[in-house]
Protein 1
Amino acid sequence: MKTYRQGPETKRLLLRAMTVDDADVFLALRSHPQVIRYTGDEPFHSIEEARTAIAQYPDFDKVGFGRWCCVLKESRAVIGFCGLKYLPELDAVDLGYRLLPEYWGQGLATEASQACIAFGFDVLGLDRIIGLVIPQNAASIRVLEKVGMKLDGEIEYEGQAALRYSVRRAVWTRAGEAGG
């Protein structure tokens, strides 16, 4: 199995596996009330919790891909994460993203998500990618729609009602793909 710790690159972003050196940003993401409001995640309370979570993140070793750190090319600042995660309980690959609030509204989540979908279809050979979102998360719904996903159902996931969006390789288009 090939492992993809280096993710795609966009006009403004480099995507790569998170390391324990990124624990400060991961702590900020997992402890910011606005960031975790719609995730169902418990907040982290220490840098050690963040380091441990990064060190124990199994996806790259288990399936070869996962959520990548989003790094701004211009400043080298780590601003969040975006990537694909295999969900065995749904037998599906999910697109997920989180950015620090100061980077919201700049099209970065859409740019990173487009690149991750292209990677999933072109490199991993996936047929379908889903996006799970809490119905109240209008901003995240807009990102999923901008990257070509369509609502295809409602499910309960990890004890929460969620909307399931999806896109198939056969119908996905790069038209408007951010960052190219």
Note: Confidence is low (pLDDT under 50) at residues 175-180.
Protein 2
Amino acid sequence: MKQELSILIPIYNNDCRQQVTELCHQAEAVNGLTYEIVVADDGSTEAAVSDWLSDISQMKNVRCIRREQNVGRAAIRNFLAREAKYNWLLFMDGDMAIPSETFVKNWLEADISQLGYGGYIVGKGEASSLRYIYEKQCEPMHRAEERKKRPFQHFHTCNFLINKELMLLHPFDERFRQYGYEDVLFGKQLRQAGVNIEHIENPAGFFDYENNAHFVSKTEEGLRTLYEFRNDLRGYSQMITFAEGIHIKAIRGFIVLWHRIFRKMERNNLCGKKPNLRVFKLYKLGYYLSLIKNEK
């Protein structure tokens, strides 16, 4: 069993008090464990964040770092890795729940030599939530046996354990300032470096769903990131593979035209009370192909 652990949580307008409380409780229950929890705020804009950080900073072995300038999802994780005291780093997103009473212990006992990913499970939600129905459809792919089939493509930052030396040697690419895909490129770079990713069944919980309009906006931001770094991510994105596989210009042009005409109607559906996943897929494809079209 690993005897030292740094739990690292980057946040941006997240209330992670319940998450940190449970992690503290579990870490304290492990005999002989030396640990710390470091929460780094990446330039949050909500005033309540100060109060939330003040609350958790009173907890044992918890350290909070407030950064005034938002540096992005990649840079804040690299910063946390440098700040960590111990050799094993458990990274978690700040909006994750802890569904298992032995979550921390499971990570400490896992046979991880370099890097491990524990996955996540989807909590209950409403049929009116686009994020919920999207995550629920994808849920089977989050199981360890499925992730192992494409270990580097199915890596996410929400819940992973990594050796500090390895993390410092292969940091996240800090060109990724906006939302999305820094984890995908990280997985690609690790594969090229010959690093193994061990996929285990020790999920975090994704139980809090943003409203539909916010999720659609995040999706658009992610697609812009994907397009910006398409040369780096080629072969690691189904969207890039599918879009570049449409060789007939007339078909590509038709999809772009469709998106131009029906974009508002599709977006109204996705942001409304009865979002449709087929519309969501079509919207994403049209949005991405429009980015290609607009550059030419």
Note: The chain has two domains: 4-206, 212-295.
